[in-house]
Specification:
By secondary structure, this protein is α/β, with parallel strands linked by helices. It contains eight helices and nine strands. The protein has helices at residues 13-29, 48-66, 84-96, 105-115, 120-135, 143-146, 220-226, 228-233; strands at residues 33-39, 71-77, 150-154, 166-171, 174-178, 183-187, 190-194, 198-203, 208-214. The chain has a six-stranded mixed sheet. Strands 4-5-6 form a three-stranded antiparallel sheet, covered by helices on one side. Strand 5 and strand 6 form a beta hairpin. Helix 2 packs across helix 5 (120-135). The longest helix has 19 residues, at 48-66.
Length: 245
């Protein structure tokens, strides 16, 4: 007889092992990283699709400049009890479906630009990147190849989620990502702040970008998009070469 009260795991062993292997590539192969930390997304649950659009736009900006695969990570950090799993499921629905296909890049742009007024510089950067993606024929490839492969993690406060990774950043310029068998310490001397809602941290040498969003502020999206210019101007893109921080 099955236990009707048994907890359904938020993550399966394959996810944990796959992320552990991916994190190893950061150290071994210099795999670039885009990590978004979502704080209190329950405050604006209807914004999940907009968040996904902003993340995916940022990802293709990095792709164009680095010309390399990127380790994509989204970390759920909720301060409301019982909210982690609903938020995680909503994010998975947004990223795992056809919405994350590169064929929807212009939709991501429209969703973001309809919500916020942005200065011409980040808007121009986004438009030029989408034109590059279209011109390279990436929108026409098979859906499987066009979809973003995103790893999810959670701040496990219940002891039952077995998250593939956790994120710890008690110091402004130091972030620690811990997986099953590996730890990644990120030192980010380049730190861009926009309001109280969002800040971006960059480690140049290893091409790591961290976007930290607190959804308790209604200005989170505008703050993120205004930081797009800082992201693409960072020294990690200089002639496509690894540079020192």
């Amino acid at each position: 007889m099955s236990d009707s009260g048994a907890m359904i795991p938020a993550f399966i062993d394959e996810e944990v092992e796959a992320f552990d292997a991916a994190l190893a590539r950061v150290a071994e192969d210099g795999l670039p990283v885009l990590l978004a930390r979502c704080r209190n997304l329950w405050c604006q649950a209807a914004e999940v699709e907009i968040f996904a659009a902003a993340y995916l736009l940022t990802n293709i900006l990095l792709m164009e400049r680095l010309n390399r695969p990127i380790l994509k990570m989204v970390y759920v950090d909720e301060d409301r009890e019982g909210q982690v799993l609903p938020t995680l499921n909503a994010l998975r629905a947004a990223f795992d479906g056809g919405f994350s296909s590169l064929s929807n890049a212009e939709l991501w742009q429209s969703l973001v630009l309809e919500r916020v007024e942005m200065s011409e510089r980040p808007v121009d950067q986004i438009r030029r990147t989408i034109a590059f993606v279209r011109g390279a024929g990436l929108m026409e490839r098979s859906e499987y190849l066009r979809r973003a492969d995103v790893f999810f993690g959670t701040a496990d406060r219940s002891g039952g989620y077995c998250s593939p990774f956790t994120v710890y950043d008690s110091e402004v310029f130091r972030t620690v990502v811990t997986a099953k068998n590996r730890t990644l310490e990120v030192l980010t001397p380049e730190h861009f702040t926009a309001g109280e809602a969002t800040y971006v941290k960059i480690e140049n040498a290893r091409k790591i970008v961290i976007v930290d969003v607190d959804f308790r502020s209604s200005g989170w999206l505008a703050a993120w998009m205004e930081n797009v210019g800082n992201i693409v101007d960072a020294k990690i893109y200089a002639a496509g070469r690894r540079t020192e921080a």
